[in-house]
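User: Can you help me understand a structure? I only have the sequence.
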Amino acid sequence: ALNLAVVGGTPLTADRTSGWRRPAKGELLRPPSPSPPPRDMQHPRPASSWTLVRAPRADPTVTSRRGTGRECTKDDETLQKELLVFPLKNGVLLDGHFVYKAGSTEWKGLLLLHLTGHRKADPQKNFKMELRRRNITMLKGFRASDLARLYPYRPLEHLITVRNPYERILSAYLDKIVSLREAGRRVQLKPRGFSSNGTFAEFVAAAASERTPTNGLAAMHYGPITRYWRNCCGDSDQQCRQGIHERYRVLKIEEMAQWYAPIVRSLGLERDVLDPKAWARTGCFYREPNTTCSDSLLVKPLEAPHAIRTESGCRAATYHTDRHDTRTCDRMSTYYTPEVAKMVTDYFRADLERFGYPEWDGDISHAWY
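Assistant: Let's start by predicting it. Here is the structure, written out as tokens:
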């Protein structure tokens, strides 16, 4: 049996003679072969019985390119975003892309609670280190087809969280610029050429004009998802739509009431979202207005209406938010004008088309979603 750990997302193995070692390039963890399907997927094969195997030639990832927003070229025929795949307790392998400023902190906190049994105040800080300390092994840098071949009896879930672009870029400005400026702290996550004392209009203009961002992490907070979270190239994959592969289930946070219960059930997170100790302030991870925590896990009918976003009708769902919450929906009229909305529309046009968001004219009396 192997004892497993992870360093920087890379699995390590230990034996009694040589101690810890890093697996050779292209090696991946999988159960021993032959591997018949487990009798009960609720009790997957323990990690201690996994062995190291050599996968096919690993496809290049965009770990070093992801923050550049560079368009695909002929050399990127096998372009794949770095995959961080988490083995959940119910046997599911989760390939979850929790996009910054689209619920990433909350969902990473829930994932840490599920995998480690503990909840952190700021799960974004040292996220991978926390998993490593608990000996949670992450699979990374391989195509979904490779994972399906290596783990044929474990279901794969491909999820990506997205948010209305008009709210998302304003949320980034309020969180990474305004809040730090008011606290007297140094502003680091900003577009090229933008002054820390600049207005929201100047922030949008600077973000839209930069060809290569000075800070890739910053661009992943405020920039288009289809540009900075790209995981495929259209010329090389017929299932690639504007940089986001069709295999990913798109979860709009504005429609959380519709997909929350099915997703929580499919990932086996029921006990975690209802843990009163973990979510002492709200009683549970999420619930709709005038409902109980248990009601949140009831699957809503498909014909239920979608969320309507207007400043007078911002949703008041009880959601366990953290210090990154900026109440953006309630502050749209303070920062948006028709001119600013036009700049955001042009900058995020690919996101609007890929994720089905309507264009907005900046008139606060009109719904922007």
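Now, to help you interpret it: Residues 1-22, 25-70, 74-82 have pLDDT under 50 and may be disordered. The radius of gyration is 21 Å. Let me know which part you'd like to focus on.
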